[in-house]
Design a protein that fits this description.
alpha+beta; Double Stranded RNA Binding Domain; DNA polymerase, domain 1; hpI Integrase, Chain A; four-stranded antiparallel beta sheet; 18 helices; 7 strands; DNA integration; Integrase_catalytic; DNA binding; Integrase_DNA_bind_dom; Phage_int_M
């Protein structure tokens, strides 16, 4: 049998699923899904290495043999073909060191740290909208503080939060470029801030309803519609809109709703979910919403997803209210401060706020679920018409 060139073009067209050797370390791999690819096996310093050469039929038999011969000869000199190819790819990428390319590369490196691997696009959007249209083609090594200043000046005072995020992202991209060995000015963003000056923008808090007014509003949500039920559960649990709107039936077990870690804002990289105690009224609202459930979601919309945050906000806006759904977290926190003696750490845990440093949290392994459950029942008593009297928590200290 021939040591090389064992396969033929005719055979490749009807090759069965499996690995087929062409000789000299070149293999044709036919997958069960119908696709196929070329794989080259080489031995370097006594260690066998396996590298993909490309897919078939895009890479023909003749071209696959040429590539295999190239990498086989390289391995014979003691050089690792896989590392050599990676070096070539890196060199090719360096030929285009525009800000747009480096931004995409930096994003890929950070995706694992972002919620949902950054699929929502929020990390990139400040740059995609306000920076890359003007500076995307500029080599990152040429980028200076004047470029950044001129680009962000139009939004520096009017959209301060967006401008701040864009500046922070730019700083990350520059550090990423420096780590790749590119000669960039790591101080460019700080210099740009000095040129732009202090922002005149005054941030506004999300309007919140006074806790004393919540019972009247809650009572007005009397129809068993998804919007009314979602707003009721939002008020009762004190969670943010996103996890509330995306609540799934399989996250609810008895009187506890477990919010997945990736759904919790400010808990990037968290490995623990957040438990929300469900008071009797919250469980009643969930039971009323169950008939609406679809695809596992308690609050679905007609398009296969879930109801939007705008749906909840517009409901309140149409009622002539200044307050917005997120503001009910403020209502709850203010009630905790003014109408209960809940310890600070318990009150903050009610809203899933992270308090203290990592070392302290590592030793304090409790989420105060029992104390929070009692407070949630009292909060429900208030919003459903109770007096909101001062509550004493036995043993909460």
């Amino acid at each position: 049998m021939r040591a090389k060139n064992r396969l033929s073009s005719q055979f490749l067209k009807t090759a069965p699923v499996g690995k087929h050797c062409d000789g000299a370390g070149l293999w044709f791999v036919k997958r069960a899904d119908g696709g196929a690819q070329w794989v080259q096996r080489v031995t370097v310093h006594g260690r066998r290495r396996e590298m993909g050469l490309g897919g078939f039929p895009a890479l023909s038999l003749a071209e696959a043999r040429k590539r295999a011969d190239h990498w086989r000869k390289m391995a014979a000199t003691g050089r690792d073909p896989i590392k050599e190819r990676e070096a070539e790819q890196r060199a090719a990428r360096r030929e285009d060191i525009s800000l747009a390319i480096l931004t995409a590369d930096a994003f890929e490196a950070r995706k694992a740290e972002l919620k949902g691997d950054g699929a929502a696009g929020r990390w990139l959007s400040p740059l995609n909208i306000h920076v890359l249209p003007q500076l995307g083609r500029v080599p990152v090594t040429d980028l200076d503080q004047r470029d950044i200043r001129d680009t962000l000046a139009p939004i520096w005072h009017t959209k301060a939060d967006t401008a701040r995020k864009a500046m922070n992202r730019l700083s990350i991209v520059l550090r990423h470029a420096a780590a790749l060995g590119l000669d960039v000015d790591l101080q460019a963003t700080e210099k740009a801030k000095a040129l732009l000056g202090k922002s005149r923008h005054v941030p506004k808090n999300i309007p919140a309803m006074a806790w004393a007014d919540v019972p009247t509003f809650y009572a007005s949500l009397e129809e068993p519609t998804l919007t009314h039920l979602a707003l009721r559960l939002l008020i009762l649990t004190g969670v943010r809109s996103t996890p509330l709107r995306n609540i799934r039936l399989d996250e609810i077990e008895g009187d506890v709703w477990t919010v997945p870690a990736e759904a919790m804002k400010g808990r990037k990289g968290a490995t623990e979910a957040f438990r929300v105690p469900l008071c009797s009224e919250a469980q009643r609202i969930i039971d009323l919403a169950r008939p609406h459930a679809r695809n596992g979601f308690l609050f679905p919309n007609t398009r296969g997803g879930v109801i939007s945050d705008m749906t909840l906000s517009r409901h309140m806006e149409r009622r002539g209210l200044e307050a917005r759904p997120h503001g009910f977290r403020t209502s709850l926190r203010t009630w905790l401060a003014e109408a209960t003696d809940a310890p600070h750490e318990v009150a903050e845990a009610m809203l899933a706020h992270v308090v203290d440093g990592g070392v302290v949290r590592a030793y304090r392994r409790t989420d105060y679920l029992e104390q929070r459950a009692k407070l949630m029942e009292r909060w429900a008593d208030h919003v459903t018409g109770g007096a909101g009297q001062v509550i004493k928590l036995a043993g909460a200290g």
